[in-house]
Specification:
Elements: H1 2-11, E1 17-22, H2 25-38, E2 42-47, H3 54-68, E3 72-78, H4 87-91, E4 98-103, H5 116-122, H6 124-127, E5 135-138, E6 142-146, E7 162-164, E8 167-171, H7 173-187, E9 191-193, H8 212-224, H9 226-232, H10 234-237, H11 241-245, E10 249-257, H12 279-284, E11 289-294, H13 300-312, E12 316-322, H14 330-336, H15 340-346, E13 349-353, E14 370-372, E15 375-379, E16 383-386, H16 393-398, E17 402-407, H17 409-422, E18 428-433, E19 442-447, E20 453-456, H18 463-475
Domain PLD phosphodiesterase: 127-154, 368-395
InterPro entries: PLD-like_dom (IPR025202), PLipase_D/transphosphatidylase (IPR001736)
Organism: Stutzerimonas zhaodongensis
Length: 481
């Protein structure tokens, strides 16, 4: 694979990188699994969340096989969302060729489950700042990046909930840049070797029974869910990565990332050093259309002013986010609710993804509820930004983030079409101000499976979700959402 990528890069226009969208959970999983299986020198993985599940176990199995081939593997995980029991399966893959670090663990109490929450609470000013980066780098010349973490819900493999997301397969100069970003985080003082965070040292590969636990975990998962296992391992029977490399869109791309020191500052980050700084001129230069996709959307008053100004200049502005019934974090929705009417009155169109889209939609996965997890911005149908960055204060101010800005009408149009489908009445509610009501409330417009136009005058959600959203407004926690 490495030689194939090198030849593609040499044949491309100097300075351009190759990109391919990974829209389905299956494609996103296959890209990661095949990249690991075909790596010959190194694998670097950087993730915010690592959940146990059949998909994670299969990927870890591929990592262990790569380590056996002599591939050098480094795992860098945010400590807040991937600690405790989720490390059990990672530790079972301990190997001389595998190094693992956790990012920003608490200084006190980390080694015991009973004291870990207290340790985080005592260090709250730093513990609420998390490494939200999501990257998989193979041989430093191929990257899979975007919104997906590691866990069944990100790869259409969870019977309870699945996330709608966007990933990118990248090769070329941006891959080298992302490799440099990983190295910066890996070497930072907040990246702590896992051995220092555990009560007992990791037993190294080769000691008694070490390879067996992970193999048994994989067998158990596949025996329990044979159909799911067959779907996830289809890449072994029909590999796709080589074909995808021939389908790359070549364009100028800019890799962007926050410096890891953003999480270590005592006060707010330096705006000039934030990943969002290079995006501001692009955002301010929009002339015709702005399409925003954000799983968690809290625009703040500054964002409201910007979007209102765009509409005032004749720019068509559309936002796709989660509905209260679909979001996995109702508290964040509570931070978004106060801005809706002002956005609508300014001329911004708001779309909220439904928990269960119509049966004939690509967004419907059998009877499994879905939740939007995508993050993307399309500028004038020419440039597109993709990454894990949500449009909310937490992502901009407190978390570290990563992303890529691509100048490609072809790629931008593909994302635009995907978003447009997500904004259809069969997939999402379009929220509008109810002009017929004296109180000028909101209505949620949508279509049923037969294409009939329907309308709700009360926000779709159960009482518990309504309570959580109300609580966020009551506690005024918007700056931390």
């Amino acid at each position: 694979m490495k030689s194939r990528i090198d030849s593609l890069v040499r044949a491309a226009t100097p300075g351009q990188s190759g990109f391919r969208l990974l829209l389905s959970g299956r494609d996103a999983f296959n890209a990661r699994a095949e990249a690991i299986a075909q790596a010959t020198e190194s694998l670097d993985l950087q993730y915010y969340i690592t959940h146990d599940g059949i998909s994670t176990r299969l990927l870890l199995g591929e990592l262990l096989q790569a380590a056996n081939r002599g591939v050098r593997i480094r795992l860098l995980l945010d400590d807040f969302a991937s600690d405790a029991r989720d490390h059990r399966i990672l530790l079972s893959a301990a190997h001389p060729n595998i190094e693992m670090k956790v990012f920003n663990p608490p200084n006190k109490g980390r080694k015991r489950a009973t004291t870990r929450p207290l340790g985080r609470l005592l260090e709250l000013p730093h513990q609420h700042r998390r490494m939200h980066n999501k990257l998989l780098l193979a041989d430093r010349n191929l990257v899979v990046m975007g919104g997906r973490n590691l866990g069944d819900e990100y790869y259409d493999a969870d019977p309870e909930r699945n996330f709608v997301d966007i990933d990118l397969l990248c090769v070329g100069p941006v891959a080298s840049d992302f490799s440099a970003s990983f190295e910066t985080y890996w070497q930072h003082s907040l990246a702590v070797p896992i051995d220092q965070c555990l009560r007992k040292s990791i037993k190294r590969f080769g000691r008694r029974h070490q390879p067996r636990p992970l193999a048994q975990e994989i067998d158990d998962a596949c025996n329990k869910e044979p159909d799911q296992c067959s779907l996830l391992t289809a890449y072994r029977r029909t590999p796709q990565l080589v074909t995808w490399l021939d389908q790359l869109v070549w364009a100028t791309g800019t890799a962007l990332w926050d410096p890891p020191g953003k999480l270590a500052t005592a006060s707010g980050p330096d705006e000039d050093q934030m990943m969002t700084a290079p995006l501001l001129p692009v955002a301010q230069g929009v002339r015709r259309e702005l399409m925003l996709v954000s799983a968690y959307f809290v625009p703040t008053w500054a964002g409201l002013a910007y979007l209102s100004d765009c509409v005032g200049r004749g720019v068509s502005v559309r936002v796709l986010t989660n509905s209260l019934e679909a979001t996995d974090v109702p508290l964040v929705h509570g931070g978004y609710q106060p801005y809706r009417k002002a956005l609508l009155n300014a001329g911004v169109r708001l779309f909220e993804m439904r928990k269960k889209p119509a049966t004939h939609s690509r967004y419907r996965l059998a009877d499994t509820p879905v939740s939007l997890h995508s993050k993307a911005v399309v500028f004038d149908n020419r440039q597109v930004f993709i990454g894990p960055l949500n449009l909310d204060p937490r992502s901009v101010l407190w978390n570290s983030e990563v992303g890529v800005l691509v100048d490609s009408p072809t790629l931008a149009n593909a994302v635009r079409q995907l978003v447009a489908e997500g904004q259809s009445g069969t997939v999402s509610y379009e929220v509008e101000v109810d002009g017929s009501a004296q109180s000028a409330g909101l209505v949620w417009n949508y279509e049923d499976d037969q294409g009939r136009a329907l309308k709700l005058k009360r926000e779709p959600a159960n009482p518990w979700r309504r309570f959580n959203a109300w609580l966020a407004r009551l506690l005024r926690v918007e700056p931390f959402l």
